[in-house]
Each structure stands twice: as structure tokens, then as C-alpha cells.
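User: quick one
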Amino acid sequence: MTDTPLLELRNITKSFGSVEALTGVDFEVRAGEVMALVGDNGAGKSTLIKCVAGIHAADSGDIFFEGAKVDIHGPRDAARLGIEVVYQDLALCDNLDVVQNMFLGREANRFQILNEAAMEHSTSATLKTLAVTTISSVRQPVATLSGGQRQSVAVAKAVHWNSKLVILDEPTAALGVAQTEQVLALVRRLGEQGLGVVIISHNLHDVFETADRITVLRLGRNVGVFDRGTTTQQVIVEAITAGMPTKVAGIPSTGERPA
Amino acid sequence: MNAAGVVGNNQAPAPEEKQISGGLAGLYERAWLNLRTGNLGPTPIIVGEIAVVIIFGFTATNFFTAVNFVNLITESAGTAMLAFGVVFVLLLGEIDLSIGYVAGIGALIVAELQLPGSSWQVNGLIAMVVAVAVCAVIGGFQGSIVAFIGVPSFVVTLGGFLIWQGVILNKLEQRGTIIIQDRWINYTDAYIFSHLGGWLIAAIVTALYPLSVLYKKIAARETEIAKQNPYTFALRTIGVAVVAFGTVAVSNHGRVIKTALGLPLAGVIVIFFFILLTFLAKWTTFGRHVYAVGGNAEAARRAGINVPRIRVLVFMISGATAGIGGIIFAAQVNSVALTFPPGNLLLNAIASAVIGGVSLFGGRGEVRGALLGALLIGTLQNGLNTLNVSNGWIYIITGLVLLGAVMLDTVAVRLQARSGR
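Assistant: Done. Structure below.
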């Protein structure tokens, strides 16, 4: 871990009409770290992630990536920086196969003609790196895969592009016990490979299984950042349900750094 | 019916297929597995086509003649062209109801531009290019309303249906009929290749399929898409050869009074666009994006695909193919009249694509479905005509075939879902 966070959000505010979804939120994640983002429904987790992914534009606030201030205006900007998001609904095309989904929107081509061989080889290689062994054929339509397999494809797709930061939105929400274990192991491997990982989850068991640190949001504001080693589920639950909004808790750089 | 998105003709092996042996035994196993799991591909429609040909061959006196065969090709050509465009629109999960009258606009423009003695008279070839371009722009205009304003395509193209019908009415109500004398335009339907020319075209078309498979096998060796049972490959190659050379052989036999017939250009135009559009759908990034948008538009958008651009381009294709089809139809009667478009052109085109296994809900289907569907509908209507069956019955029977095809497809999809494919 380095001192400069991989991704740093400062003072992010975002409103939808008269509803303030985020109010002066700070957030950071370092390379090689799994950061959990937790909070009750409507706490602003998804909105915060969408600001990073380029789906929403923040009303105000700054985004720093690898120490440099960046503007993210769309999914392509985020992808160019090396930020990939795995959405709750996975955003896979059921009618396309694993390879086709992996390269969706970024197909290997020469003069617009698809290079299927290169795409298939590279897909197999990525799945191998991530030790995803449950998918028997990369030419299966995604419609035929199980929930865990789909999640693995979605994660592999995110990692595939030499990404530096992978954001997972509720990756285990729709999975059974065994499949959840598979996916959590995959998430830990991402961290071990030096990527920054943000995992959004309602399931504190999952969070404590994977995360190095935990950021808690409540009603669109920061409540605190906790080290997994020095906190308990009890503390996190209290923070989620009754935490007091705070500007500084847990993020050392906040406040000291000149804007 | 078709496993959408799988490149070329290779089906992605599902896990249970892993044990299937190569060679001849594997061929039977795979055929049986495909039947059980509802992965029928174009088989039912080919079987249906053969059945229809046999039935009419025995019942209708003039059906089984070379002249009627050439007629059948030229009659189906226009519908097939429109159906190609319908495939792309349906792949997006959209619909284009305007194509019948957009085809009329295409025909009207070539008719106007070739008008002898008018100040704007141009060469027939230029007239056709202009007409197709205008039709593409019309499609693009309607597609833009769908893509940027977000009006459902059903409504937008229903508007187009009325508007372009109105334009044709205004133009032709006083004039009646515009006769097309330009030979280039009339060639699109009536040009007949020499016997040798026909054989050459058959040879080229036959060679294309094995060449494309071999190219894939070499370029993509050691991948799953390169895997194909050699017997399947051989059977398919033989099938393509039999159809291509058979078509030319029968066409060359035709004789109207003393003029020898041959392969009609209309058929070659259709095959040319069939190959071109199949390539576009299966081998290019654009085609991949069309399937992606049809499968999950939101996923495509998040993947950075410019979804509105894809939508506009697809409606442009639909407009352009309608224009080409319209020109072929106009060339058939050497004129454009108020009765254009002929018969149930719009519904026949959509029915062709649907009978060919293209899903109305997007993301599933192939260009070849339009060709096979148009051929089946063309054969049915031609055969019933030679039997002197009334128009009413022709509509009823076409409708029943459409229903049957869609029911078969629905059952097949359910079987596929149950077997996890």
C-alpha cells in the first residue's frame, strides 16, 4: 500500500431535484486494498459509485485518481482511467457468449472486422488468472450460466482491461452460499493482485470476510471509516443505523490537504 | 431457433456436449441433441420449403417448370430485400412499419429521375443510387426520432407509413402511372445472365462458404469457434453447392417462346446483399453491437456502445434495403402506379423474418432467416397462384404458416431454456 490513495473523493455533493443524495462525502481507496462501502438503503452508496463511474456527474466536489485531479464525464472516461464497475444487475447481454460479453464495446478488431481468435484466447487467459474454473466453455451464451458464473464473468470483465480499480455493487446479493464463497474468494484475489477494490454490500458477513477497511455512509453523509481488524460488526451496525455525520473520521488526509 | 451471437455457423458447445465424439457418430449425436434441446436452427424452415415444393410439384401443373422457377426468384427478391432490413430492426427489438411505402418512395424516385424529356433526367444507375440514398436518409430520420427523442419505433414508423403513403398518393393521383423505360432500372428484375455467367456465379457463391470456414479455422486455430465436425462442414458445403448449381441449372433450362432464360439478376442482387449483410452482422463490431443493444440495451450503453448511433444506423439499413426492394418491384412491372407497394409487402417482409426465426424481442436471429422466410412465403404464394387459388385463401394459408412457424419457435425456445442452453 502506498500513501497516495488510488482513488480519492473530496466533498462530493449530488442532488436529484430537491433531494440531496450526497452531502460533502469523502472517500478513498488504496491500491491493493479492499474497501467496503456500507450503509442503509438510500444512504447514497450507489449514487457515490455512479459519480465515479461517470453515470452521474457530481454537482460539486473533486475526484483524484492516483493523486491527480480528474474529470469523469462518462463510462468511457472512467474506463480510460482504469476504473471498472460491476453493477448489481451485472450488465451482461444474455444472448451473447462469455467472450462477446467480455469484449463488449471494446471488441478486438482490424478495420472493424472482429478478431475472434484474439478475443477468445485473451478471455480464457483472464479466467485462468482469476482461477475461474467453473465455466466450461467461453463460447456459452451467458443465458446458460448460473448466478455465480455470471458474477464471475462480470468480475473477470471488469479486471480484464488492466483496470486499477474495480467497484462491485452487491456482488453476492443473488447468490447461494457456495457461490457467494466463490465470488468472495475472487474479490480477495483481486486485492492480492494489487488492484484497488470497492465492494458495496448489505451483508456484513461478506464485508468482514473480504474488506480491509469499511466506509460507512448514512443519509448521504460520511459516518466513518473503520479498520476491519480493530472493529466489530456491532460497531458497524451502530454506525449504519445511528452514526453521526462527520467530516474527518478515518480519512487522515481530509482537512489537512489544501483543496 | 438460432443461437444468436454465435459467430458463423458453429454452435457453442454446452457443457453436456463436451463428450460428443467427432466423426460421423458425433454428427448423429449432435443432431439428436439439437432436436431434443430445441436447437433447431433453420432446419424446420428448410424442411417446410421442401415439403411445399413437393406438394405443389404434384398438384399444380405449371409449378414445376423452369420459367416458373425464374419467376419465383424474381417475385421473392423484393420481399427478401425488405426482410433483410427487418432482421436488423427486429434484432434491436424495434419494428419498422414504414418499409412498404419507403420502398414505394424508392420506386417513385427512380421513376421520376429516369423520366425521358424531363429536365432532371439522369442515368438509371445514378437514379438508383439517389433513390437508395434518399430511402436510407428517410430511415435515418425515423431512427433519429426513435433514438434521440425516445418515441417507440412502432409509433414513429406508423407515422412514416402514413406520411410516405401520402407522398406517393399526392404524386401519382393525377399522373396515374409512371412508366420506367431506363434499361438499367429494369435490369434489376429482368436481366438474365448467360448460362456461363450463371455457372460462374454459382461457383463463386459455393466457394465462399468453405473459404470462410477455412479462414476461421486457420485464423482462429486452437479456439472453440474453429471446432466443427468435418462431416457437418462437408454436408453444409455440399448443400450450398447443390442449391447454387441447382438454381442455375434450372434457370438455364427455362425458355420463353424462343428466348432462353438463365439466372436472373434479381436473385444475384439478393444473394449479394445476403452475403454482405451476414458479414456485417456476424463479422464486424457494428453487427456485434446490434446484437448487444438488442440483448440488453442498458448493458450496451454501460459498455460504452453508442446506442443511439446503432439505432439510427439500423433504421438507415432498413430504409436502404426497402429502397432496393422497391426498385426491384418497380422493375418487375416496368412502372410505378398507385397500386404500389404490391400486395401485402410490409407484412410479407416482416413475416419472412419472423418465419426465419428472428425474435420480435431483439437479440436473436440471423440474416439467413429472412432469405429462407421470403423464399418460403414466395413459394407458397407462387404455388397457390399456379393452382388458381383465390387471394383470400393465399392470405389465410400464409397466415397459418406464420402462426405455425412462430409456435414452433416458441416451443423450441422453451425446450432450449429447459435444457439450459
